[in-house]
Amino acid sequence: MAIENKAGDGFDTVFCQNDSVGLGSHHDYDAAQARIFKIIVIGDSNVGKTCLTYRFCGGTFLKNPEATIGVDFRERTLQLDGETIKLQIWDTAGQERFRKSMVEHYYRSVHAVIFVYDVTSLISFESIPEWIEECSRHSVGPMVPRIMVGNKCDLRDRREVPTSAAQCLADSYSFPLFETSAKDPAEKEHVDAIFLTLAYRLKSHKPMRLKQLSESGVRQLWNQREEEATICQC
Ligand SMILES: Nc1nc2c(ncn2[C@@H]2O[C@H](COP(=O)(O)OP(=O)(O)OP(=O)(O)O)[C@@H](O)[C@H]2O)c(=O)[nH]1
Ligand SMILES: [Mg+2]
């Protein structure tokens, strides 16, 4: 299921049921040419970060996952509107003792952040502002897209976090909210859609590759920065 994004932040939910979106894990794309985007998945232990990323990259529900130590890397190559892009997904550890030596690495040069809570655990939802704060403390810029995901929607009669409360929190940060289940096979496409939504957003940002700039281009950029620095007094 997709939660309508009321934040008006330019995110559209993308569903991947048509052929214009290629899901690259089973195709032979020219991955060498791909732009690579680093996405980190953050949240309390046991909310299902490993299962969600495994569902997206591996296509199935991972039975009996172990607690993540440090970070696990997963990758998926996508064809979006004729361009090959690679999502490098950092599945981080929720447990403090397994993450503390890694935190700096998580946030370095990140392109997008996914905050995950468990809809059956109010505590995991209440932790979200702390995760957001940690992210800001590590100088993740405001232009880096962030989304919130409530996982384990299949456990309907154990739900502790109402959609309305989650939407309210997401709105307060202007983040899009998604609720889903890594376990429910019927949600497979929705899990894909969440990552694809982010991928489209990242694709449109077109991060600049400095080595592609000519010398005059670099000079122009530098002058522009100098001008901005003189004008801006804040
Ligand atoms: N019912 C249900 N259980 C899930 C779902 N996703 C994950 N789980 C279960 O939740 C538990 C924790 O899942 P993980 O993916 O290991 O959680 P994590 O957030 O990676 O935990 P850490 O690595 O410790 O940070 C496991 O027992 C999973 O089987 C889901 O969508 N529905
Ligand atoms: Mg994990």
UniProtKB/TrEMBL annotation:
Localization terms from the record: Endomembrane system
CDD domains linked to this entry: Rab33B_Rab33A (cd04115)
Any GO molecular function: GTP binding
InterPro entries registered for this protein in UniProt: P-loop_NTPase (IPR027417), Rab33A/B (IPR041822), Small_GTP-bd (IPR005225), Small_GTPase (IPR001806)
SUPFAM superfamilies noted in UniProt: P-loop containing nucleoside triphosphate hydrolases
The family this protein is said to belong to: Belongs to the small GTPase superfamily. Rab family.
Protein name: Ras-related protein
Lineage: Eukaryota, Metazoa, Chordata, Craniata, Vertebrata
